Amino acid sequence: MTSNHHPTVRQKHAPLKGGSSKRFKQHHAIFFIIVLAIFTLDQLTKYLVRATFSLYETKTIVPSVFSLTYSTNTGAAFGLLQNQTGVFIWLSVMVLGFIIYYYDAISKRLSFVIPTALLLGGVLGNLFDRIVYGRVTDFLDFHVWPIFNVADAALSIGCIILVIVFWREDSP
Question: Which of 79, 113, 118, 129 could share a disulfide with 136, CB 3.0–4.6 Å?
């Protein structure tokens, strides 16, 4: 009998008591902590901006480099597709459905868990704004880039990491 079939040798992904692996449970925890952290940070920062700034008010943090500027956006990133809130709500729900449908596969690999959690946290943050306010609050202004928010940053970083992960897996 080989060691892979020996009852006392646990294989890399063998289930633990309760039918799920320790790694799988850790991945679940990491996923939900990241989603919750991104959503909470996004909503808290947007709330603080709405509560303390007038629309289009700017506070310079680093001259000619970075400011906080209260702006709103009814479109996508970079001001594309303005006044298409319904389309972006629908797209957000589709992304959410895709993640839910493929969650078991996503949660098996940390290389998918982290970027997908960033993506989902960002989607949920902006979806909340679109449903509650009819627009997204933006405030991070680097002067050489359109004004954005925490959700936009998380969503973009998550997408970039996923592209890199897929690209590396397809490379010979």
Answer: 129
Q: What is the DSSP string of 61-121?
A: EETTTEEEEEEEESSSGGGTTTT-HHHHHHHHHHHHHHHHHTHHHHTT-HHHHHHHHHHHH
Q: Is 152 a catalytic residue?
A: yes
Residue with tokens 């970079």: 78
Work out the average pLDDT over 11-30.
64
The one catalytic residue among 42, 129, 138, 141: 138
| Cα gap 13→21, rounded to integer Å | 7
User: Is-catalytic flag, 138?
Assistant: yes
What is the Cα–Cα distance from 9 to 40, expressed in whole angstroms? 42
Residue with tokens 């008010």: 57
The yes-or-no verdict on residue 97 having pLDDT over 90 is yes
Task: Give the pLDDT of residue 16.
Answer: 40
52 by DSSP, 3-state: which? Answer: helix
Candidate list 42, 129, 141, 152, residue with the active-site label: 152
Pick the closest to residue 49 from 135, 159, 118, 149 (CA basis): 149
